[in-house]
Amino acid sequence: EVQLVESGGGLVQPGGSLRLSCVASGFTFSSQWMSWVRQAPGKGLEWVADMNGDGTKQYYLKSVKGRFSISRDNAKNSLFLEMNSLRAEDAAVYYCARDHKYTGGWHFDYWGQGTRVTVSS
Amino acid sequence: DIQVTQSPSSLSASVGDRVTIACQTSQDIKNYLNWYQQKPGKAPKLLIYDASILETGVPSRFSGSGSGTHFTFTISSLQVEDIATYYCQQYDGDVFYTFGQGTNLEIK
């Protein structure tokens, strides 16, 4: 059974930093692209970043590029999101999701339960 | 960047009704369009991928169609457990993903 479990969320002041973690199980983690997707309170879903299986490629939402950094430790089946210079608009539930492709485009076939980030003074 | 417009933003229907949600993109995305269901306080769940392929385990009352820039998601006979927010999501082939604004589906 595929499982994704996020942790690391919490309350942080504007300008502060936070590191989110996601531990995966039930599949060959090192073979899979993985993403972070966020959802601000009462709002829709927004893709934030993703990374390929060996960690050599990463892509970011324009508004977080230069402030957020995605990384992974395949030996520990873990995905990370380092968030710096946090702004009020970064407050959201952050989901870890597995990228998957069948024959067409990419989609997110498994999601974690999410970890909440609150940015407030 | 490709824009995604989902409509309606909210929808009220009765049990047994046929429900349709539309998603339009600003550029041709072939069939790179997916649909998710999200219930309150829960993570999204993949229902349909590549515009029309039903994810394993998803009831057959859910379906999707379309290609290019116009896509449709349909529930053939609405059930109480289908009450949720539904999102379309596009992949533009250039490693970026964009979600629609969501459709909040309620029981009339």
Walkthrough of the structure:
The complex is a heterodimer of chains A (121) and B (108). Chain A has 121 residues and is an all-beta fold. Chain A has strands at residues 3-7, 10-12, 18-25, 34-39, 45-51, 58-60, 68-73, 78-83, 92-101, 106-111, 115-119. In chain A, the strands form two sheets. In chain A, strands 2, 4, 5, 6, 9, 10 and 11 form a seven-stranded mixed β-sheet that branches. Chain A has a four-stranded antiparallel β-sheet with strand order 1-3-8-7, with no helix packed on it. In chain A, β5 (45-51) and β6 form a beta hairpin. Chain A is globular and about 45 Å long. Chain A starts with a strand and ends with a strand. The model of chain A has no long low-confidence stretch (mean pLDDT 97). Chain B has 108 residues and is mainly β. In chain B, strands 2, 4, 5, 6, 9, 10 and 11 form a seven-stranded mixed β-sheet that branches. The mean pLDDT of chain B is 95. The interface between A and B is medium-sized, with 21 and 31 residues.
Largest interface: A-B, 21 and 31 residues
> Helicity level of chain B, as a percent range?
under 10%
Classify the oligomer. heterodimer
Shape of chain B: globular
Topology, number of strands of chain A: 11
Helix and strand composition category of chain A: mainly beta
Mean pLDDT of chain B: 95
Radius of gyration of chain A, Cα only, in angstroms? 14 Å
Largest sheet of chain B: 7 strands, mixed
Helix content of chain A: under 10%
How far apart, in Å, are the first and last alpha carbons of chain B? 37 Å
Q: How are the SSEs ordered, and which strands pair?
A:
The complex is a heterodimer of chains A (121) and B (108).
Chain A: E1 3-7, E2 10-12, E3 18-25, E4 34-39, E5 45-51, E6 58-60, E7 68-73, E8 78-83, E9 92-101, E10 106-111, E11 115-119
Parallel strand pairs in A: 2-11
Antiparallel strand pairs in A: 1-3, 3-8, 4-5, 4-9, 5-6, 7-8, 9-10, 9-11
Chain B: E1 4-7, E2 10-13, E3 19-25, E4 33-38, E5 45-49, E6 53-54, E7 62-67, E8 70-75, E9 84-91, E10 97-99, E11 103-107
Parallel strand pairs in B: 2-11
Antiparallel strand pairs in B: 1-3, 3-8, 4-5, 4-9, 5-6, 7-8, 9-10, 9-11
